[in-house]
Amino acid sequence: MVRIPAGVDIESQLSPFFPWVIFDMDGTLVDTFQLNLLSFNYAVKRSLSAEEVLRIPGGTLEEEISSYVPAGAVPRAIERYHAYYKQRFDSETRVFPGIRVLLLRMQTRGVGLAVYTGASRQIAEFTLAQSGLSQYFPTVVTGDDVAKPKPDPEGLRIVMEKINARPAQTAYVGDHPNDVRAARSTSIQTASAERGTQKRASRFEARLHIQAAIRSANLVRPPSISGMRHLRRSILHIVSWQSPSVQREHVHHARG
Known about the structure:
The chain is an alpha/beta fold. The chain has twelve helices and nine strands. Helix content is 43%, strand content 11%.
């Protein structure tokens, strides 16, 4: 975390390090894991465990559902998924702590925000609107907008083209290894929000490990357990801002 000395005017000393930040949605902005599990089971009329669902090869919702129902029943199963998801959304999801404050501060300081999610357009727009986050993301690219899902970088490239972002000044924040792989394929910086999707089959805990957000400068390391408690106060500085002296250090390391 970048620490600003006492008495220093933060507003005048800080400048954007990442003018553009793209977020994944599920597991990064909103805790939807339990709802996705329940919706999937309702759609395919099964009682799959979280571990079983996590083992389904990544892809579109249609591809995942087709693993459990006949081809002719897939459209109806998708309708069931969407209906259940919307009906139970308020009781089964939450915006992760600190996210609203983070987005507001980044938006206020002029950081260009966008979402790239593997979810369908219908689910993505509903989730962001119902969570009160739509106002922060004028650009949203979904699984419906790409021919190749993550880890293919197609979606990130579409987002960057839409917001006119440059890879060297863009960060992608996600919770899955495929998010990191997609970001690396586009040469943009990555910040990994590990909230338990790959390690736990229960509700996420609010844990965030910044991984290589500013790799070349070696400025950020995964925080300790105690450090996680300060996440809400520090993530803005980690992902979006640093002082001019640190910027010079970054340039020095990058050139070396």
